[in-house]
Amino acid sequence: MRHGLSGRKLGRPTAHRMLMYRNMVTDLLQNESIRTTEPKAKEVRKIAEKIITHGKKGTLHNRRQALSLVFDTTVVKKVFQDLSERYKERNGGYTRIIKLGPRKGDMASMAILELLP
10 — phi, psi (to 5°)? Predict the structure, then answer.
């Protein structure tokens, strides 16, 4: 039974799934927009918003927490300097998901995940 369990498995082993999420979060924070399937976008949004919240707090512990999830140190620098200033007045909800419709090859529902301006 799956009582109380959250998150999607996406048909992947745990290690592969976590690495995929880390890559997607790094790309989202670096490019500020990614195009992916809708279930992946919903999972990546959770992680990205936590990273931005760590950036807003700005302590050394929060920087180390962010570095444990984001691969690139320049992206973490961007989060703690630029994005924390951009979202200092906002209490969550830093991203938006725009649904695009089905992908041509396999009819997977596609979406754009982007950071709000």
Answer: 55, 25
| Structural domain for 22, as ranges | 14-115
Euclidean distance between CA atoms 102 and 94, whole angstroms:
25
Q: Is residue 52 part of a domain?
A: yes
Beta bridge partners of 112: 35, 98
CA–CA separation, 77 and 66 (whole Å):
10
Domain CATH code at residue 45: 3.90.1030.10
Q: Give domain status of residue 89, yes or no.
A: yes
Residue 33 inside a domain? The answer is yes
Residue 24 CB burial class (10 angstroms; 0-12, 13-18, ≥19): buried
What gap in Å lies between CA 24 and CA 48, rounded to an integer?
Answer: 9
> Helices 38-57 and 60-67, interaxial angle, to 10°?
160
pLDDT value at position 89?
A: 95
Question: Chunked in runs of 10, what are the mean pLDDT values of the chain (117 residues)?
Answer: 90 97 97 98 97 97 97 96 96 97 96 97
